[in-house]
Amino acid sequence: MARTATKLELTDTDTVHLKKLIRTRTTQVQIAQRARILLLKAEGLSEEDIADKVGLNRKSVRLCLQKYKDGGVENALIDAPGRGRNPEITDEEKAWIINVACQRPYELGYSAETWTYTMLTTHINYHAEASGYLRLSTISRAFIQQVLEQADIKPHKIRYYCDKRDPDFDEKMHEVLVVYKQIEMQFDEEGNLLPFEDIRINTISYDEKPGIQAIANTSPDRLPTATNGYRYRDYEYKRLGTVSLLAGIDLLTGEAIPLVRDSHKSSDFIEFLKLLDSKYPKEDRIRLILDNHSSHISKETGRFLETKPGRFEFVFTPKHGSWLNMIEGFFSKMTRQSLRGIRVSTKEELVQRIYKYFDEINETPIVFRWTYKMDKFKQDDSGQLIMSS
After folding, report:
1. What's the CA gap between 299 and 388, in Å, rounded?
2. β-strands 285-290, 201-217 pairing
C-alpha cells in the first residue's frame, strides 16, 4: 500500500500569514514560493507533488520543510543574513566534499575514471542527506569547485590520482586538531584567556600567498557623477611585477603578522621566523602550523633552527590538507576585501596597502575558532587528549 504523506500542522495565525504573503504583489518570489510549500504540505501533499506545483526541485522543497521543522515559519521563509552573496558551510561539510573528491568515481560505482565537476556535484547532491549533510543536497557546482580549488584538489586530472598520497594523513590531521583543542581549552567560557601553568606557547597559523600582482591602470578611473551613477574603469592595464605575502595569525590573540617580500624562499621564511623571535618574550615557545613547502624543511631553515634550540616547534598539515590551516580562511577574506580589483601606480604602493590592511584588522583583532571534530576529544586519566572515532 502506498505511503500517505504526512500533513504539516500549521496554526490558524500562521495559515492566515502565509496566505497573505502569497496574495501580496510586493512579496519576493522566493518567499512566496516557500509560503506556498508550507501551505501545500499542510494540505497533505507529498514533496514530489509540491515540487511540481511550485516549480522547484524536490530537494529545495525538503530543505524548506526542514528549516520549518528547525525554527518555525519565519526560519523557513527568510534566509540568514548574507545568504546567497557569501554562502558558508562548516569545516566538517568541506571535509566530506574533499573526501568524496579524493576518491575515484569507479570506486563509488561509476564507469568513469575521473570526476567531472557536474558528475561530482550530482553525486554530492544525491548522497548528502543520507550522509548527514542535508545542506549540501542543494549546493551548486560553482561552490564545490571553489572549495576544491582552495584545497588544491583537482579531481578531473589523471595525474592528480597518480600523485603519491600522504600515508600519514590521519596522523598529521590528528596532530593539528590536538593543537586546536589545546588552544580551545586555554579560554574560559566567557572567551577570556586563562593563565599558562608552565611555559607560554604562542601558536601561529602560517602560510604564504605568492604571486600577488601589482597592476596599474593605463588611464585614470572615471568616478561617478550626478548624471553618471556608475564607476568606469578601462580594461587596459599593465603589470608592474609580483610580491609574496608571508603571514601568520596568533591563535591566542587574533593578531595577524605580515611580511611582504619579492619571493618566498628559505631566506624569506627565516626572516619571518626572526620576526617572530623578536616579537615574543625569550622564555616563550613559538609553535607554527604550516604545510610542507620546501622552504619550511630546507637545510638552510634547519641550520637556523639549530641556533634556536627549543624556541620553535613546527606542526605540519598533511598533503591535500591545507584546509586544516586556519590562515587559509583569512587569505580568502583578504582577497575579497582588499586584493580583488586592486590598482596601484607602483609595486611599492601595493606593499604599503597590504601592510595597511593588516594595521586595520589588528585594530580590532578577532580570535579564530576551529570547530571541526572538537567535540570528539576527551582527556584520559593521564590528562592526554584522545579523539574518539
Report:
1. 37
2. parallel
* 3 in any annotated domain: no
Residues 324 and 177 in one domain: yes
Question: How confident is the model at residue 88, as a pLDDT?
Answer: 59
Q: How far apart are CA 150 and CA 332, in angstroms?
A: 9
Q: Where are the alpha helices (DSSP H) in the chain?
A: 12-23, 29-42, 47-54, 58-77, 91-101, 117-127, 141-150, 158-162, 169-184, 266-279, 299-306, 327-334, 347-362
Point out the residues of the chain with pLDDT beneath 50. Answer: 1-2, 82-87, 162
Q: For residue 153, which phi and psi values (nearest 5 degrees)?
A: -105, 130
Same domain? 28 vs 123 = no
Q: What single-letter amino acid sits at 25? A: R
Q: Answer yes or no: do 325 and 186 share one domain.
A: yes
Q: Are residues 73 and 180 in the same domain?
A: no
Q: Could you tell me which of 323, 275, 269 has the C-alpha nearest to residue 296? A: 269
Assigned domain for 21 exists: yes
Confidence at residue 292, expressed as pLDDT on a 0 to 100 scale: 87
- Cα-trace Rg, the chain: 26
The number of C-alpha atoms within 13 Å of 338 and in the hemisphere containing its C-beta is 20
Q: What is the CATH number of the domain that holds 265?
A: 3.30.420.10
pLDDT at residue 202, rounded to an integer = 95
Contact of 15 with 36, CB cutoff 8 Å? no
The domain in which residue 344 lies consists of 171-222+233-362
Rounded-to-integer distance, Cα 181 and Cα 369, Å: 10
Which one of 142, 162, 182 terminates a domain? 162
Grid coordinates of 288: 607554527
- Residue 370 in domain: no
Query: How many angstroms separate the CA atoms of 355 and 205, rounded?
Result: 18
Pairing of strands 377-379, 385-387: antiparallel
**Dihedral (Cα; 195, 196, 200, 204), 10-degree rounding:** -70
Between CA 116 and CA 122, with CA 121 as vertex, the angle to 5 degrees is 100
